[in-house]
Specification:
Layout lengths: L3 E6 L8 H5 L5 E7 L2 E7 L5 E8 L5 H11 L3 E5 L11 H21 L4 E5 L6 H15 L3 E5 L1 E2 L2 E2 L6 H9 L3 E5 L14 H20 L2 H4 L5 E3 L6 H14 L27 E3 L5 H11 L4 E2 L15 H4 L6 H16 L8
Parallel strand pairs: 1-5, 5-6, 6-7, 7-10, 10-11, 11-12, 12-13
Antiparallel strand pairs: 2-3, 3-4, 8-9
C-alpha cells in the first residue's frame, strides 16, 4: 500500500545571511557546529543570536532523507519549509527574496527525485500581490503542488478581505493550500512548559479553521483545496462547543454563515468534509474522532518529519489500529493526500 507523508519540512544546508543582506535583524541563520548537526539561530538587533532549534542532517540532506523514507516505507514526501521561515514580520520584498531561494531549493530536490518528493511553496503573505506572483511562478514554472501558509498574517486571520485574492489565485491555479500554525498567540502567558507548541499551535489552527468556515470562504471558492496541520488542532475536540455557540448566538456570525457541520463529513450520504487535515494526533481515540468528523478521504498521513513533536515512524499510529479496514488505510496512507495535491495516478512510488 503506497504511503504519502503530507507534512514534512526541509531547509537548504546553507544560505546567505539575510541580516547582512537586508540590514536589519530578526532573520533565521544556520550555524553548523558539528558534522551533521546545526542550530537555527535568530539574529537580534544588538548583533547577538538567539537559539531557535537544533536540527540534524535529515533536515537538509536528500540522500539521508530518502534512506529514512525507505526505512519507514514512505513512498512520497511533500516538502515544505520550516514555518519560522515565513517571515511575515519582514519587509515584503526581503521576505520574497528569501522565499524564492527556499522555493528554488525545494524545486531542485524534487526535480532530482520526482517520484519521491512533491513541493509546497512559501510566499510573502504580508503582501498578497507578491504572494500571488510567487505562487504562480512555483506552480507554473517549478511544478509545485501548492503552498504552505501560516494560520494568520501579522495578526490578520485567514478571513481578512485582503487575503481573499490569494485564495482566489490558489483556486485558479489548482494549488492546494496547507495551513501550518505559526506566531502563536499569547506568548507572555505560554512561556513555560513548551506551551506555544503544545497549546498555542492547536489553538491557532482552530482559529484558522473557524475563520475559513464562518467567513464562507469555501462557498465563495468551491474548488479551493485547503488543509490544516496537526489533525486540525483543537477543532475536532471543541467542535461540539463551536456548533452549540453558533446555534445559541447566530447574531454573532455573518447572516449567510453555515454551522460547522455543514462543511464536515455526512455519514448519511458518505460524503467527506470540505477541507483536509493530516493524521498527526498522537493517540488512537483522537484519530478515530477525526475520521468520524472528516471522513477517511480527508485525513492524510502527516508526520511533521524530522521534528520531535512529529511521529517518529510515520504511519505507526495507523498501523497499530486493527479496526481500520483496507479502504480506510488506503485513504489515510495515500488517497487523501493524492486527492488534496491533485496527483495523477502512478506519479509517485
Amino acid at each position: 500500500m503506497s504511503r504519502i507523508d503530507l507534512h514534512t519540512h526541509i531547509l537548504p544546508e546553507r544560505w546567505p545571511s539575510w541580516t547582512r543582506r537586508t540590514g536589519y535583524a530578526g532573520w533565521i541563520e544556520l550555524a553548523h557546529h558539528t558534522p551533521g548537526c546545526a542550530r537555527m539561530e535568530q539574529t537580534l538587533p544588538d548583533g547577538s543570536r538567539k537559539s531557535f532549534r537544533d536540527i540534524a542532517a535529515n533536515c537538509w540532506d536528500p540522500a539521508l532523507r530518502l534512506r529514512e523514507m525507505d526505512s519507514a516505507r514512505i513512498d512520497l514526501q511533500v516538502l515544505s519549509t520550516v514555518p519560522v521561515m515565513f517571515s511575515s514580520w519582514a519587509k515584503p520584498h526581503d521576505a520574497l527574496d528569501l522565499h524564492r531561494l527556499l522555493n528554488d531549493h525545494i524545486a531542485e530536490v524534487a526535480r532530482a527525485h520526482p517520484r519521491r518528493f512533491a513541493s509546497l511553496a512559501c510566499v510573502p503573505l504580508q503582501d498578497p500581490d507578491l504572494a500571488c506572483r510567487e505562487l504562480e511562478r512555483c506552480v507554473n514554472s517549478l511544478d509545485f503542488r501548492g503552498v504552505q501558509i501560516a494560520t494568520h498574517v501579522n495578526g490578520q486571520n485567514l478571513d481578512e478581505p485582503a487575503l481573499f485574492p490569494f485564495f482566489q489565485t490558489a483556486a485558479r491555479l489548482n494549488a492546494a493550500v496547507f495551513v501550518h500554525p505559526w506566531d502563536m498567540l499569547a506568548p507572555e502567558r505560554t512561556a513555560r512548559y513548551w506551551m506555544p507548541w503544545l497549546v498555542g499551535m492547536p489553538t491557532e489552527t482552530t482559529i484558522a479553521i473557524s475563520s475559513v468556515l464562518f467567513s464562507g470562504l469555501l462557498d465563495k471558492l468551491p474548488t479551493l483545496r485547503i488543509g490544516f496541520a496537526h489533525g486540525g488542532g483543537s477543532f475536532p475536540g471543541t467542535l461540539g462547543r463551536i456548533a452549540h455557540g453558533f446555534a445559541a448566538r447566530p447574531d454573532l456570525f455573518p447572516p449567510d454563515a453555515h454551522p460547522p457541520h455543514h462543511y464536515l463529513a455526512n455519514p448519511a450520504t458518505n460524503t467527506p468534509a470540505r477541507f483536509w487535515v493530516d493524521s498527526l494526533t498522537h493517540e488512537p481515540h483522537a484519530l478515530r474522532t477525526l475520521l468520524r468528523v472528516m471522513h477517511p478521504r480527508r485525513v492524510a498521513l502527516g508526520s511533521d518529519y524530522p521534528f520531535p513533536l512529529g511521529e517518529a515512524l510515520p504511519g505507526s499510529l495507523i498501523d497499530t489500529m486493527p479496526e481500520l479496514d483496507a479502504p480506510t488505510r488506503a485513504h489515510l496512507f495515500s488517497g487523501a493526500a493524492a486527492e488534496f495535491l491533485a496527483l495523477a495516478p502512478g506519479s509517485f512510488a
